Amino acid sequence: MSTPKRIFVKGNEAICHGALTAGAKCFFGYPITPQNDIPEFMSAAMIEAGGQFVQAESEVAAANMLLGAAGCGIRALTSSSSPGISLKQEAISYMAGSEIPGVIVNVSRGGPGLGDIGPSQGDYFQATKGGGHGDYHLLVLAPGTVQEAYDLTIKAFDLAFKYRNPVMILADAIIGQMKEPLVPWIPQGLDPDEGQDWGLQGAKGRAPRLLKSLFLDDGALAGQNEKLAAKYRAMQVETDQELFLTEDADLIVVAFGSIGRIVKSTIRKLRAQGHKVGLVRPITLFPFPSAVLLDLARQGKRFLTIEHNMGQMVEDVRLAIRTVADSAFHGQLPGNLPTPDDFEQPILKALEG
Amino acid sequence: MNQEIRVTNYPEVLTDRASHYCPGCHHGIAHRLVAEAITELGLVDKTILIGSIGCSVFIYNYLSLDAIESPHGRAPAVATGVKRARPDKIVFSYQGDGDLASIGMAEIMHCANRGENITTIFVNNTVYGMTGGQMAPTTLVGQKTTTCPGGRCRENEGMPIRMTEIIASLGGVAFAERVAVNNIKNIKKAQKAVTKAFECQTKEIGFSFVEVLATCPTNWRMTPIQANKRIETEMIPYFPLGNFKDVLAKEEK
Predict the structure, then answer these.
(1) Does B106 touch chain A if contact means CB atoms closer than 8 Å?
(2) The CATH number of A7-198+228-236 is which of 1.20.1440.170, 3.90.950.20, 3.30.565.10, 3.40.50.970?
(3) E strand or H helix at A162, and its extent?
(4) Most buried of the four, A192, A220, A280, B105, by CB within 10 Å?
(5) CB contact under 8 A, A203 and B86
(6) How far apart are CA A279 and CA B14, in angstroms?
(7) Where do the domains of chain B lie, and which CATH numbers do they carry?
């Protein structure tokens, strides 16, 4: 096999390439900025790949189409941006309850309400704490580069089917709209029989299969929710994070997604000036890298959480390290594209402690 | 001692269990019409059932088919996803009037308009049954419900919606018919309509829709016999029976 060629694409396109190479067969979308490149790209590419593309009448319908398609045990996805993701929560809750492995992409924008169309990390709570009604979690993956948008989209499908649980890719307008080099790779060993032992296909020669989230019998919902909780505990092994210059650091900055990569540049600059700063960039937001943070806290390090919102992930950081340390917080306001310089003073201030 | 004797056989796909439906409810007949149609057409092995919200949420207990539950009103969207993922299967949704004509209006309209090769069985009993008899989009003017205790009023709640006529007007629709199951004659016609609807799906010529006028004696505060009579005296005059679209019949001519 020849060496894969580098391509120069937007994060939104990288997600499409990742989904196609992961074997996605159905895409259901609806227009909303800043994710429009995804349905536009998929409207042609998914058909060329022999799959199905539907521009749904609403985000509500698109997510419910995903419920149906993924319920057949095939790889399928939908994408949207913050206000549209709110509309998808109904079907996402049903997917979690019925154990259906749909993949949902959120190229998030500013909120609440109509907000703006610029970058924001205001959907952290919604993504990691369930989002819809009921007692459930999604696996949540947060790309920080265009390459990672591709890699994590492939991983999203693997995890969705491994756990029979919906997976959300939480990107933002920066990752979605930014162009970067991407080296595509082809996942090996995709199981052609994946999903065929539980998916809907017509009950020929076997007992019927039923995908449902209604459990009315005495104790039935308790049993189901215990089963889901056990699954969420088992997912902890999937925790993933990038550690950058943490070993000798006095201060650990915790930042995810696009902000994580921008902070990394700030840290490089501050390191050159002799400041001992490191970065933990959570790649999985659920499960959250609590153990890694606690370990660093036990080494006596101090913490600063930086987010593109008014303070959401910082609650999980504080929860992780609460027995030994606390975290300061810096919130980048929406409406502008942050630069590494924006984070210099907040980090220096935290270093002074 | 009474001995139970089966006086007639029914399709194997109908499970042998007592239903949770109230005495005099028409859901059981509608279930059986579906069971007979897919059995007659030899489709049982490849049929996928899309359930909805309402009394018929438990339809998967009575039809021995692969099945999935949908959120309220979304069955046509879920059906679209299933059919797109498995175009070689037979996919049908079974929905009530609150589900389909109120909260699910967008989903049914666009599914029909896209001409998805899906069949929808729409059971119209003019009330929200499972939640206790609230006003539905099909509740007749003057009909009393728990949320229009003085009777539905045209000025305040508008007129009841005639779904089959609306569905028939959409380009993607191959078949749209309204039937009743209040007497043998109407049941026979209903049986033909449901079979034709599934036949359209096997021929992949577009969306097929059968509206079944049905009783809800409990929420109508009627006996089963009174409820059956109401179909004839009040429902059929406003919701006329008959075929509103049949692309197959047109082709045959």
Answers:
(1) yes
(2) 3.40.50.970
(3) helix A146-163
(4) A280
(5) no
(6) 61
(7) 27-252 (3.40.50.970)
